[in-house]
Each structure stands twice: as C-alpha cells, then as structure tokens.
Here is the input.
Amino acid sequence: MWNVAFAELRKLRRPTLLFGTMGAVVFFSALFSSLLFLLIDSPDGNSDRGRMVGREVLSLATGGVQGFNSVGGFLGIIALCVFAAQTAQEYTYGTLRNLLVRQPGRLRILLGKLVAMKIFALLMIVLSAIVSITTSVILAPSAKVPTDLWFNADGRHAIFTSFINIIISVIGFGIIGMVMGLLLRSPISAISFGILWLLIIENLLIAVKNSLEHWLPGAQLSAIAAGGASRVNATGVTYSHALLVGGIYVAIGAAVASFLFVRRDVAN
Amino acid sequence: MSNTAISVTDLSKRYGNQVAVSHATFEVPLGTICGFVGPNGSGKTTTMRMLLGLITPTGGTGEILGESIKHPEKYLPRVGAMIEGPAFYPALSGKENLNVLATLGGFSTDRVQGLLEQVGLGDRGKSKFKTYSLGMKQRLGIAAALLPNPKLLMLDEPTNGLDPEGIQEVRALLRSLANNGTSVFVSSHLLSELELISDYLVMLRKGEVVFTGKMTDLMLSQQPVIIAKTNDENDLVKVLAIAQNAGHQATIRDGAVHVQGPADWAQVLNRAAFDAGITLSQLTPQLPNLEETFFEMTGEK
Here is the structure.
C-alpha cells in the first residue's frame, strides 16, 4: 500500500497540479478571510451567503478561525475535484492496467491512492489555515477587532477543533470525488456531477424543503467543516448528526465503489 | 519446477452472448520467443488481459511461471507487460512515468535511466510523455515492461509506430532477452517480423486456437509451392495444363506457374515439360511464408 501511496505522491507533486492547487488554496483562503474584515460594516454581509459576522463574534476565541471555517467547504470542493480527477484519469489514460500489472492488489491500489491524496489534502488544509489565520491577524486591527482571545487556551482549542473538522469534511468530500471517479471513469463527468450535485442540486432541494439539509451528503460535510449548523436558515444540523449521516454516505459510497473496482474487468 | 512460461487449458472469456476467447489451450516453453498471431478481434488482447489478471476468465485454467492465473500477485512481480499500446501520464516526463511504476512495483528507480538508454530514449527521458512521437511512446512502453527484470515479457504489438531501424532494434532486444533466459510472448501484425524472431507460435482465429507449436513445425507442415517459369510466356499455359492434368492445384501468377505439391514433384514437372518441348527457365520449390500460412489457416484472404 505504501508503494502505491509513494507512487501517487510522485504524480501529485507535479508542478502544475501542486502549485495550481495550492495557489487556489492560498488565494481563496486569503479572500474569504479578507472579506470578513474588509466588509465588516457592509449591510450586505461579510461571510458566505450574505451572512453577517460582527465584531462581537470575531472578538471571541473562535474569531481567528472564522475565515478558515468559511473556506472549509471550498477546500472540500477542491479535494473532490483532485480526488475525482486522480482516480478517473487512470481509466481515461489507460494507465490503470499498468498500475494493476505492477500492483495486482486492487484494494491496496485504492488505499494507497487514498493515503496519498489525504496527505495532499492535509497539505492544502495546513496551508489554508496558515493563510487564513495570518490574514485575519493582519486585517483585524484595521477592522477594530481585538485579537486578545484568539491565541489563548480557548483560541488554540478552537484552531485545533476547526482543523480537525475541516480535515474530516475535506476527506469526506475527497472520498466522494474518488467514488465518482471510480463509478463514472471520466474526470470531467466525475467532477461535473460532483460539483453540480453539491453546489446546485443540493441547494435547490434544500431551498424547496429545508429539512433535507439533515439528510443530503454535501450538507452534512459542510456542517462538519463548520462544526455544526452551516446555513443561515438551518433548522440545526448538529455536529454529531452530520458526522453520523455524512459518515454513512461516505462509507456506503466507498464500499460500493471498492466492490466494483475489485470485481470489474479492466477492459480499456 | 514447470518448464512452461505460460500454460492455459480451455481458457474462455464470454461477454454476454459474445465469445471473445473459446477454450484456448496452449503452452509457451520457458526461454523462447512465442509469437501470438490472429486477425483483429480474434481474442489476442483479451487472452493477454486474462493472463495478466486484468479480466476474469469465464472458464478454463492457466498458469504463468508455475503459478495459477487466479493469483496474479504471485507471478506479476516477475512479468513485464505492455498491452494495447503504451499508456502513461501525459503531463509527466518519460523518466518520471517510469519512476512512478518503479515505486509502485517496489523496484529501484536507479534502473530507470539505464532502461531509457536501452530503448534509445536516454536523451529524451526528461521530456513530457505528451511530446513523444508514437515510436518513442512505444519505446517507453517497452522500457516499462522491462522494469521488473522480467522472467516473462508479454508485449502486444510492440513494433507499432516504429521505423524500420526501431523494429530491428526491438527484434535484437527480444532475441537478446530470450538468449538470457527471458520468455517472450509477443503479438504483432507484422508477421514477417514474428517469422524472423519467433521459436514458437500460437495462432488464434475467432477466439479459438488454430495452431500452437514450434514455428518450424508449422512451416514444414505447409504444402510447398513449385514456381515454374518458361522462356516463352505462351508455354505457361501448357505447363499449367501438365500440372492440373497430374491432379495438382495450379495457377498462373506474376508470369509464373504456381503449383501446389511436394518439392520432389518438381523433377516430374521438369521431365514432363522437357518431353513437351518446353524449356523451363526457373523451377523452384518454395515453402509459403508465415503470412501466406496465416492467411491460409485463418481464412482471412
């Protein structure tokens, strides 16, 4: 499994993918955090979906990670794209047969790829945390937001908790991307379907029927990233509920995709 | 220890109602070069895929290097393969592609540069795969197949896209590998190439094995053709009549009479032509080449 992971990391470290992805992470992490402080007095809101996060909230021990929390869902979408592309491209390039000839253990291939992509996702999250928190620290004084509580014991706990929640969420999104890649066997189809579902279909469904927020996979993973209820109109997806339902989705998807990957003939 | 590199019995693959390979039974002895021939769609690649554990047979059994094909993990570390053309990551260089496969298989990446040089890509290893010509891609595919220092090499159309010099190099490479004990199982549509390098042959037609054995046995089993030319072209018809009256199949082609029959019947034909006042300018018994034999056996022409 480790051989597969190291081989996958060789692919993931290619400059266009690595710097392209990390560049996007840096840009959006800085953007999400900047908007929190630059638009703090804007009547249109300063957070996602027009939400207003005021000075009182930003002054709390959790204030330093507000920007990081906001970008968490976006990191999930990036992970979904990377995981889906890296998995599905083995079919479109025909390289899967090379992998299977060199490593016939199909589950080992999947696990090795997953480990490598988790490492890649972890790098993304660490970078995002550094950029988000640094941006917040830099912009807080000009927005008249005190930062005294951000790095005390509670603040450090908030950073740690956010970090763990975002890791769980991003890896969940990534596994969904991988499942899409394995099922659809085409990077474009897998990414399109994943993004279409998570960004458009789920939001439409939730807009029509609010209670669906408790049961749709993307909503659960976003709720995990936010440490609980994620939307303004949320009727309250608790963290434990999101973890349970999101975990069930990810587990079922991973089990079905793994079963098909192990059993399916490689005929291309 | 088994003396065969590949041994399959009744190997079959069916997709719904369509039979891709039907009860294929053949053996490839260790240390030989075995040509694997058949028309397009005859089941060559499907057979290779089954041998490599990529697809599951619907029937039959097989062994590779003494291990059952049900457990490819036991023999694949000793097998190098390139099937259905070279497939690599276009954004990575040739060298980096081989490094990925070496890391995956647990082989030293130190071998990679040497392999690139062996296949003539020593100075292009750092170029991206997507910039390679078809011939270069093919060479990289062969280098990848050689990564594990294989005991058995399975190559599907390895000379596709190669120029004559490249084809000659691949031929020399395969011969040298076989001389060093590597068994080579190679499919190609260039039958003249296979005829030059193969010791053994497996011939498929519509998913069924129509011949398996030594190349020399196949060629010797073929009916020779006696080619007769006359000084006077008008005499060709008379020679044709002599052959046909003696019960042989004969045709006039390319300014010569082609008579199917044993080589020693050439003397009889020579005497009969002489008695008829015909002077033969050429009388050559000739064995059909692999291509002619292939068309004869597969009914492709």
